[in-house]
């Protein structure tokens, strides 16, 4: 089968699915319309064992000794869309990260794979995931057994990349995204009158010193060759201009590529906060509200899947690169459990007229990449199952 040609024939359908999803974005685990569309399409294509799973959907195509997982995320972001598209969302949420494209591409792959089910040398498991934006959907699906029955051997994920040439597929081994640890710091001092600061312990002052000290965690404790980010995105304290509040609350995130840097920051943040607070006669309590590791591309699997991408798309259209994603992605929970590879696929560069990045209200994506993504999903799954069957056969004869 010519995967790109066959996927190209599905372009109109892929675009229609994507636009339906785009006009009706949903958040987190509450994706009733999205899930209904996915299940309806999978049933139409002939997929088997279509099941609800922790707010998402899993299904299988084919059967055999080995199973490859293909994953797409489905949730949107809580922001108003300002793209100006005729099919833009109007419900106050937006698919500004491209998950609607991911879902449409995996649906396209499902149709391609169902059409050749009898030729598959194993099983393909499709995983449509909720709540990626809250970094909780993958973990919930894994807890519900998404990697079991049949047991998954390897996994493939994909993400569109704005400000990158349309259709350019990139891959590379090792850590490919930041880890993510969300924290809350509660500073407790002593409230008082704004005219008598000496009788109070100013929680805002203490929080300010903690904020500045936290920046040294990256600049003075992390190796300059190992990227790390410490960001406070929310500070709340007080409700009166002439009063000193008893408490102040800061929330933010820690991010790193290397596990040892992640462990260092998670360990040192409470120590820094406690030490600074103590110096000002206050207390600081640090809570970690959830986290995910970095996405890790398995070396041997990445080499193999990368070769499949080059076979399918040609030299120059699928490239190995050391560049990593300056964001976090809960596909990491899957890559922590089974060998995995995570591709990025360009969805429009500035020279092509795409001027805004993901997570912006003005984000637009090139729909011409939908057949490419669908073909890549399907081709990688089919080729891996073929090669793995040959390897298993050789091993049985040894």
Based on the model shown, name its key terms:
398 residues; alpha/beta; eight-stranded mixed β-sheet; four-stranded antiparallel β-sheet; 10 helices; 18 strands; elongated
Structure commentary:
- By secondary structure, the protein is an alpha/beta fold.
- It has helices spanning 3-9, 11-23, 32-45, 99-114, 137-143, 203-221, 259-279, 299-313, 332-335, 370-397, and strands at 48-53, 56-62, 67-73, 123-129, 154-161, 169-171, 174-175, 177-178, 180-188, 192-193, 228-237, 243-244, 247-256, 283-292, 296-297, 318-320, 325-328, 340-346.
- Strand 1 and strand 2 (56-62) form a beta hairpin.
- Helix 6 (203-221) runs antiparallel to helix 7.
- The longest helix has 28 residues, at 370-397.
- It is elongated, with a radius of gyration of 24 Å.
The value of Rg in angstroms is 24 Å
Low-confidence stretches: none
Widest sheet, order of strands: 1-2-4-3-5-18-6-16
- Give the helix level as a range of percent: 25-40%
Give the CA-based shape.
elongated
Q: Based on DSSP secondary structure assignment, what is the total number of beta strands?
A: 18
Along the chain, the helix and strand elements come as HHHEEEHEHEEEEEEHEEEHEEHEEHEH
Number of helices: 10
Structural class: alpha/beta
In terms of DSSP E residues, the strand content is 25-35%
The largest sheet is: 8 strands, mixed
Distance between the termini: 32 Å
Q: Kindly state the mean pLDDT as a whole number? A: 96
């Amino acid at each position: 089968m010519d995967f790109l040609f066959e996927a190209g024939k599905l372009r109109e359908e892929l675009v229609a699915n994507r636009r339906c999803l785009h006009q009706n974005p949903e958040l987190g685990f509450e994706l009733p319309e999205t899930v209904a569309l996915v299940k309806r399409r999978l049933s139409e294509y002939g997929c088997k064992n279509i099941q609800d799973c922790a707010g998402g959907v899993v299904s299988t195509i084919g059967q055999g000794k080995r199973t490859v997982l293909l994953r797409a995320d489905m949730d949107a972001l809580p922001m108003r869309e300002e793209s100006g598209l005729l099919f833009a969302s109007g419900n106050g949420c937006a698919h500004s990260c491209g998950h609607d494209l991911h879902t449409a591409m995996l649906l396209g792959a499902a149709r391609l794979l169902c059409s050749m089910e009898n030729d598959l040398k194993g099983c393909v498991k499709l995983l449509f995931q909720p709540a990626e934006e809250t970094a909780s959907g993958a973990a919930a699906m894994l807890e519900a057994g998404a990697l079991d029955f049949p047991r998954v051997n390897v996994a493939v994920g994909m993400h569109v990349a704005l400000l990158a040439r349309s259709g350019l597929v990139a891959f590379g081994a090792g850590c490919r995204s930041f880890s993510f640890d969300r924290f809350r710091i509660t500073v407790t001092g002593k409230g008082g009158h704004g005219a008598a600061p000496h009788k109070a312990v100013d929680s805002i002052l203490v929080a300010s010193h903690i904020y500045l000290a936290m920046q040294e965690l990256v600049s003075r404790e992390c190796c300059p060759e190992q990227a790390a980010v410490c960001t406070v995105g929310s500070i709340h304290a007080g409700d009166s201009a002439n009063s000193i509040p008893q408490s102040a609350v800061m929330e933010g995130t820690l991010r790193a590529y290397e596990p040892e840097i992640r462990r260092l920051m998670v360990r040192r943040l409470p120590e820094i906060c406690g030490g600074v607070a103590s110096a000002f006669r206050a207390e600081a309590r640090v809570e970690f509200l959830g986290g995910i590791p970095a996405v890790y591309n398995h070396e041997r699997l990445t080499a193999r899947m990368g070769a499949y991408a080059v076979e399918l798309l040609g030299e120059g259209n699928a490239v190995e690169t050391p560049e990593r994603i300056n964001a976090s992605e809960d596909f990491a929970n899957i890559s922590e459990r089974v060998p995995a590879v995570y591709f990025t696929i360009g969805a429009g560069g500035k020279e092509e007229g795409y001027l805004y990045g993901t997570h912006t209200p003005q984000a637009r994506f090139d729909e011409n990449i939908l057949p490419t993504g669908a073909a890549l999903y399907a081709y990688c799954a089919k080729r891996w199952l073929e090669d793995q069957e040959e390897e298993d056969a050789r091993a049985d004869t040894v």
